[in-house]
Write a structure and sequence with these properties.
Layout (H helix, E strand, L loop, with lengths): L10 H46 L4 E3 L2 E8 L2 E6 L9
Antiparallel strand pairs: 1-2, 2-3
């Protein structure tokens, strides 16, 4: 059922819309590349934390004026502030 409130689609509008769809596709590709880069950086960061753990253990450590511990979830290593937990505060 056609939308009678919409202005008619002229060939010029259709051409302009095609350009916008192409821009959208380019942005989606750029986003995919950034997502891939972020995933690679997270792997590198995890590797650095794992190397620290191999050298001096899980901590706690004082780093940049914060006490941190090394944690592992699955194959991913990361820092957590000492005392920080996933408990729900009420």
């Amino acid at each position: 059922m056609p939308d009678e409130t919409r202005a008619p689609v002229t060939p010029e509008k259709l051409d302009a819309a095609k350009v916008k769809f192409a821009e959208y596709d380019a942005i989606c590709e750029e986003e995919r590349q950034l997502d891939d880069m972020m995933a690679a950086l997270k792997i590198k960061k995890s590797g650095a934390v794992q190397a620290i753990e191999s050298l001096i253990g899980k901590g706690p450590f004082k780093y940049k004026d914060q006490e941190i511990l090394i944690m592992k979830r699955g194959e991913t290593y990361f820092f957590r502030l000492k005392g920080q937990s996933s408990a729900i505060a009420i």
